[in-house]
């Protein structure tokens, strides 16, 4: 039993040593151009409070939505949609063209 | 309708920092092999099945009446957050709570009392859990259909086979009872774990629980999206991968060591759903009271707290699993193979734990 406690303690100490580094203050806006037709989703890092500007193009009319941030825009063919917003909480947020085409994942730290 | 994280909720957790993942994996590896050398050399934990609960049918009646009053928009939160994860947490803390709460168990009051076929074992439960995790991770819109199907199958099973049906074939109850063995309030968790009856389908239940949480990580990454493989195939492949690695590593024991995977399941589940309960749990309660515009407080989902809970839960689960498997292996193996015989399982557990941590990092 004592061994078990020693192991658990070692584990907690290790976990405690590795808190996440402090995020730097927001820089300029994060600007991304995304295409629904050639979606190649990636993770893109952003900082909490940073302005985000997404320009989305599509051949077909489609709704674009940022999960967890209630921003919705319609893309018409030949008329890109521009979504401007700031994410004021941390987490990973999907930017999707409906019904389920993932365009980019915003990793907000 | 878009596919949401865990059926409800719009936000995923941040990926774990890589250094934390590597440290966690190193600790798991080190702890496992230290345990092998340092822990006791004679089995210590005799099986002790936690005492049977009194049948509390008025509680179930109360839950059944309560469910009628649940507003329609609250159902996804009720099921995906409070039932799936809330019941899991309560089970780890207090014991098998679903057995007490499940209103469908009322069906066993009017049973025909046929004997439940031994060969079926936990297979219906494994299938039910697979169906539920498919709804949760692939097709949340199918929830009403799932609930109707679940109710019909379990009422029918309960009427035909009585209580035994729920103990062995109801996925939620099997899940809750397995996790309930970890409850410190009901005696030594290790003794309760060893007492897990080895029935056909037990390994399948564990594989579904582990595989589905693994796919939960994989399926939400952009890399997975780029592959354009159907989510259903991914879920089934993840479950098959867990079963396909467990069975060869434990081939001489079969299901005899499956109980030692339960702490790993619990660790995974807590790591994956902690922030969901912390944030969407608030919304679930608000929805139950009919408040639709409620904005949950994010304090408990802060990155440092979530990452600590995730790594802590996965490693604690790993440690409990290693101790529990070690003790059981001593009983099952001849003395000459006490050390070497444990190595395949230990390697497998380190694999699951570091794999699980890596998936929390993966993009």
Keywords:
heterodimer, A: about 110 residues, Immunoglobulin-like, 3-stranded mixed sheet, globular, B: about 375 residues, mainly alpha, about 65% helix, about 0% strand
How would you briefly describe this protein structure?
By secondary structure, chain A is mainly β.
How is the secondary structure organized here?
The complex is a heterodimer of chains A (109) and B (363).
Chain A: H1 2-17, E1 30-35, E2 43-46, E3 51-57, E4 62-66, E5 71-75, E6 81-86, E7 91-97, E8 101-108
Parallel strand pairs in A: 1-3, 2-8
Antiparallel strand pairs in A: 3-6, 4-5, 4-7, 7-8
Chain B: E1 11-12, H1 18-38, H2 57-68, H3 75-94, H4 98-101, H5 123-137, H6 143-161, H7 163-169, H8 171-180, H9 189-194, H10 202-219, H11 222-227, H12 231-249, H13 262-288, H14 303-332, H15 343-361
Helix pairs in contact in B: 1-14, 1-15, 3-8, 3-13, 5-8, 5-10, 6-7, 7-8, 10-12, 10-13, 12-15, 13-14, 14-15
Number of helices of chain B: 15
> How many beta-strand runs of chain A?
8
Low-confidence stretches of chain B: none
**Through-space gap between termini of chain A:** 39 Å
| Beta-strand residue fraction of chain B | under 5%
Helix content of chain B: 55-70%
> What is the domain total for the residues of chain A?
1
Number of domains of chain B: 1
The averaged pLDDT of chain B comes out at 88
The average pLDDT value of chain A, as a whole number, equals 77
Largest interface: A-B, 37 and 41 residues
Q: Structural class of the helices, strands and pairings of chain B?
A: mainly alpha
Shape of chain B: globular
Tell me the name of the CATH homologous superfamily of chain A: Cupredoxins -  blue copper proteins
- How many strands appear in the DSSP assignment of chain B? 1
Quaternary structure annotation: heterodimer
CATH topology of chain A: Immunoglobulin-like
Unreliable stretches of chain A (pLDDT < 50, length at least 5) are 15-21
- Assign an overall shape of chain A: globular
- The number of helical segments of chain A is 1
Q: How is the biggest beta sheet of chain A arranged? A: 5 strands, mixed
């Amino acid at each position: 039993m004592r061994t078990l406690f020693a192991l658990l303690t070692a584990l907690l100490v290790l976990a405690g040593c590795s808190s996440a580094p402090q995020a730097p203050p927001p820089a300029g806006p994060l600007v991304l151009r995304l295409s629904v037709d050639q979606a190649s989703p990636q993770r893109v890092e952003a900082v909490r409070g940073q302005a985000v500007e997404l320009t989305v193009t599509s051949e077909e009319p489609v709704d674009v939505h940022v999960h967890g941030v209630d921003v919705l825009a319609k893309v018409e063919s030949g008329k890109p949609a521009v979504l401007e917003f700031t994410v004021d909480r941390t987490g990973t947020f999907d930017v999707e063209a409906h019904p389920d085409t993932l365009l980019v994942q915003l990793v907000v730290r | 309708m878009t596919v949401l994280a865990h059926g409800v909720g719009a936000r995923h957790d941040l990926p774990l920092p890589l250094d934390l993942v590597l440290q966690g994996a190193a600790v798991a590896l080190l702890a496992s092999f230290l345990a092998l050398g340092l822990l006791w050399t004679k089995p210590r934990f005799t099986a002790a099945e936690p005492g049977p609960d009194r049948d509390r049918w008025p509680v179930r009646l109360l839950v059944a009446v309560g469910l009628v009053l649940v507003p329609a928009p609250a159902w996804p939160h009720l099921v995906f957050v409070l039932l799936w994860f809330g019941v899991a947490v309560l089970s780890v803390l207090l014991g098998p709570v679903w057995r007490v709460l499940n209103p469908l168990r009322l069906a066993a009051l009017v049973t025909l009392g046929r004997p439940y076929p031994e060969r079926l074992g936990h297979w219906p439960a494994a299938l039910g859990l697979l169906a539920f995790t498919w709804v949760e991770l692939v097709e949340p819109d199918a929830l009403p259909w799932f609930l109707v199907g679940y109710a019909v199958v379990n009422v029918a099973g309960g009427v035909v086979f009585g209580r035994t049906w729920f103990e062995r074939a109801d996925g939620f109850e099997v899940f809750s009872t397995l996790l309930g063995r970890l409850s410190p309030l009901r005696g030594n968790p290790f003794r309760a774990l060893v007492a897990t009856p080895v029935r056909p389908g037990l390994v399948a239940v564990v594989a579904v629980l582990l595989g589905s949480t693994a796919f939960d990580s994989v399926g939400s990454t952009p890399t997975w999206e780029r592959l354009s493989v159907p989510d259903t195939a991914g879920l089934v492949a993840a479950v098959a991968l867990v079963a396909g690695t467990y069975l060869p590593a434990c081939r001489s024991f079969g299901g005899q060591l499956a109980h030692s995977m339960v702490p790993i399941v619990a660790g995974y589940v807590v790591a994956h759903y902690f922030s969901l309960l912390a944030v969407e749990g608030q919304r679930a309660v608000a929805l139950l009271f009919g408040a639709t515009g409620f904005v949950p407080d994010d304090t408990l989902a802060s990155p440092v707290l979530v990452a600590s809970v995730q790594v802590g839960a996965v490693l604690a689960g790993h440690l409990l699993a290693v101790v529990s498997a070690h003790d059981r292996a001593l009983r099952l193996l001849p003395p000459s193979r006490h050390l070497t015989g444990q190595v395949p399982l230990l390697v497998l557990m380190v694999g699951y734990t570091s794999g699980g941590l890596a998936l929390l990092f993966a993009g």
